[in-house]
Amino acid sequence: MDETQALDALGALAQETRLRIVRLLVTAGPDGMAAGAIGEAMGATSSRLSFHLTHLEAAGLVQSRRDGRSIRYSAVYDALSGLIAFLMRDCCQGHPEVCTPAVASLAACACPSSEPAE
Amino acid sequence: MDETQALDALGALAQETRLRIVRLLVTAGPDGMAAGAIGEAMGATSSRLSFHLTHLEAAGLVQSRRDGRSIRYSAVYDALSGLIAFLMRDCCQGHPEVCTPAVASLAACACPSSEPAE
DNA sequence: CTTTCATCTCAATGTATCTTGAGACATTAA
DNA sequence: TTAATGTCTCAAGATACATTGAGATGAAAG
User: Fold this and answer.
1) CB < 7 Å to strand D — which of 49-88 in chain B?
2) What highest taxon heads this organism's lineage (chains A, B) (predicted)?
3) N or C terminus: fewer CB in 10 A for chain B?
4) Domain B3-77 in this protein, CATH class
5) What does the alpha-carbon distance between residue B87 and residue B69 come to, in Å, rounded to a whole number?
6) In 10 A of CB B113, how many CB atoms?
């Protein structure tokens, strides 16, 4: 993830509806959700939803595939972890006090406390 | 860090000049830098720089204090780590595959490989 | 083949954001 | 006090973004 990609991802996430869509899709898992179901969850009109999904897909944060008459959207986990890694790499340069608290907060989530790879 | 704060922080970082300012200030350390020095590094006019610094300060990502005739800006580490934690907490809900790679990337940075707190 | 359903595309509108330039304000030095 | 320095504020203009509504497209059912 370079600066340009990070800017695209940050810009895509810096909007209430889109941030919520991403959160929804992450919890929805790899199968994702049909556009209609996302729209229902968001309370958004079809064109508004399409606008934001297109934006998220252009930023690489979600992907889509047709499934019958529906189109299913799912989160691109690599893009999210890439963004987080970018922010950490960026921020950590000689300043562990930035990311140490973030790492500590990881313990509170469902992640395995991954043995520190070398 | 709640959703509103995260949106403010993401919006502030989703702009080339501001993202670079934050990177610069993080590496500059707690003493920060005078506005003039930041502007010189960015190649930005004073009013343009002021606009972005004000935006970053409103988002809580940087703070300022007067130092003689200069005003020194420094990164707010808590805000950055809070945002990273928000994104991780968000993404990890039942989906460790999102943040595990990000954690792995931590090993490559200057951070201590923090014993997993409980 | 026609209808229905799910979603997308387009144009229009309003709002927000970024940049510029001129000038104001605060601080220090002469 | 006057001048110089560093930074901010304000108004104006250009660009980008978000939302709406109407209609087009693609897939499936009758």
Assistant:
1) 49-51, 53-54, 64, 69-71
2) Bacteria
3) C
4) mainly alpha
5) 38
6) 14
* DSSP H/E element including B90: helix B77-92
φ/ψ of residue A61, rounded to 5: -90, -25
User: Do the Cβ atoms of A77 and B98 come closer than 8 Å?
Assistant: yes
- pLDDT tens, position by position, B57-106: 999 999 999 999 999 999 999 999 899 888 887 666 666 666 666 666 65
| A39 Cβ within 7 A of any nucleic strand C atom | yes
Domain boundaries, chain B: 3-77
Structure tokens at B58: 């409103």
User: Which tokens go with A96?
Assistant: 């562990």
Q: What is the CATH number of domain A1-109?
A: 1.10.10.10
User: Does residue A70 lie within 7 Å of nucleic acid chain C, judged by its CB?
Assistant: yes
